[in-house]
Design goal:
By secondary structure, the chain is of the alpha/beta class. The protein has helices at 114-128, 140-152, 166-174, 186-195, 229-235, 237-245, 262-276, 296-302, 304-307, 328-337, 347-359, 370-381, and strands at residues 11-12, 19-20, 33-34, 80-82, 101-104, 132-136, 155-161, 178-182, 221-222, 253-257, 285-291, 341-345, 390-394. The strands form three sheets. Strands 4-5-13-10-11-12 form a six-stranded mixed beta sheet, sandwiched between helices. A four-stranded parallel beta sheet has the order 8-7-6-9, sandwiched between helices. Strands 2-1-3 form a three-stranded antiparallel beta sheet, with no helix packed on it.
Amino acid sequence: MSGDRDAIRDLVCPECGATVRDRWRCECGAPLEFAEPPLPESGDRDSIDARNGLWAFEEFLAVGDDPADRVTLGEGMTPLVDADAGADGGDSPDADEWNAAFKLEYVFPTGSFKDRGATTTLTRARELGVERVVEDSSGNAGAAIATYAARAGIDAAVYVPADVKESKLRAIRQAGAEPIRIEGSRADVTAACVAALGEGGERGESGHKGDSGGGSEGSAWYASHAWNPAFFEGTATVAYEIAYQRDWEAPDAVVTPLGHGTLFLGAYRGFRRLKRAGWIDEVPRLFGAQAAGVAPIVRELHGADAADPEGRVNAAADGIQIAEPVRRGQILDAIAEADGDAIAVTQSAAETELDRLHAAGFYTEPTCAVAPAALRELRERGTLAPDDDVVVPLTGNGLKG
């Protein structure tokens, strides 16, 4: 730890205006944000050094001001590739073509985009002097937090659904973290994790020493991918990378999976910051793909039939089956402000898309197939034109499936 506690950025509540040094949520119950998210002091985009991965965008990040605090495995700068290059060897259009660019997020150290948030969240933990973290996850976020906690030398426990895939449990265990299986719903898993924060946990002051904490023995710091604003600092870097890789021209649209909204909101925040900094001209339209049957954003925007068109849950997309996203209001605001939408993807559509992805050389896990499947439907509906320039992040490795 750098030891400069005064350099650690405070958090603010966008609902009630309260400012705190560190909590996992505001006393009013709302998620917290960084009080003063930074922007580059100059418009010199040419200074970006891609060899530094996502930390090349350090001037945009509210954590890691001291490089010694950064918990990193060289993550970031994932490939941005033509989705259809070499698909059939010919020039004629094909009904199965995506006509998009894929951002290969599944090549991260733990095999998913969640490493973006894990590097910045564990960096924040190190800045605060945290000794133990807890997280609740359906798998990928837990594996990422466990791995980066190991890199930081911080103890970790990850609360997971009882039926979590063994491949994701193995990743958590092998990083030295303790996986704790919880029966019941995804909300039950979160409740068990929050209960484990210990004395001071509700204050958000547990798991570290010093003037912002002094948590009791056995207490922990909540490294939540849904609540912790440091996680969204990391996921915002997907926007910085896309803009950098496209010579600072934003695409017309970006389509992401949408559960808690970690990548969706990260992309939205990142593109907005780029525009405020004068590095891009426009924020792209943003579209979220939800699992049919567990699609609360689609339900709110378009009703029950649109959210569950086949009367059954898309069980293949287990990574985004979030019935009550923490930042629901922020997601709806982002959709409105970015002229986007949310769409529910059925299991049959996701499975068909997964086969297409694998046949084209993209070895992804089932959940991430919902985004290219949503792109296909958005084009069929006419929401996106055939010549719209679209980027789709492929979020998880097939070895996890």
